[in-house]
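hey m, so remember when u said the tokens were messed up on ur end? i reran from scratch. heres the input so u can diff it against urs
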Amino acid sequence: MATRLLFRGKKVTGVEYRNGRRKEKAYAGKEVIVCAGAIESPKLLMLSGIGNAEHLQQHGIEVKVDLPGVGENFHNHVLTGLIYETKRPVPPPNLNMSESALFCKSDSGWMGPDIQMAFVHVPFDIIIGQKNPNAVSILPGVVRPMSRGWIRLASSDPTAKPLINANYLGVESDVDRLVWAVKLGRELFNTKAFSEWTTGKELLPGPSVKTDKQLREFVKKRSDSYHHQAGSCKMGSDAMSVVDPECRVYGVEGLRIADASIFPFVPSGNCHAGILMIGEKVSDLIKQAHGLQ
């Protein structure tokens, strides 16, 4: 477990970490690259004195760089689930249970898709699934969320889990669009293409959920994380940015971040390819900066 970054003046020279019960240090020949993800990367920066000065001082941490954007802009794709009963057992799935997906726009004004509809071979809800093993799900999701949350320290103890305010569906637009996507899911399940497989019985949200008000209550209660957390050390040039266009952390030398935390906006699709692209780009930038082959 990385516990803090090591400094010589304003230059980051290495990292302190725990190896079992031992506290050890590792030093970098040229640069330190943080790749701990959208939850742990801002936590490590804050433990090291890089972050909102007032927040760090509350925990008795010496401020190295007053960088208020660390831990802010935290966001994620958000989904919910529709479950329909099937007439017979569903064949075993491939591709991690998600063989097909639809990307679409809830409104023509969006530059790209803001909604993802994933089809999976199992019930979205494990409790419903125990009673109804022959069932499939469509997972409507908002993949261009407007809501933003934050990551903050619970204490200066590196072993303490950070505080997380995900703030999912904190903006009304996100609620409206998830309701729209649930309606689309119902339309898809009631097409001729599904009639061969489904009985037409909706197990979730269920036939009692009809009105827009009821649908809004449903998505607020039954929305969940895609685990595509992003944005908490965003790239940019405004006052809330944490890294520059070459992924270098503002205010210090020898430190870059290369993970989903630098996304200013999470991509519409799953994040894996985008994160790999960050890693490939940062490796090229490091080679260029240090004349490496």
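this time it looks ok to me. Residues 272-290 form the longest helix (19 residues). if urs says something different then somethings off w ur setup not the seq
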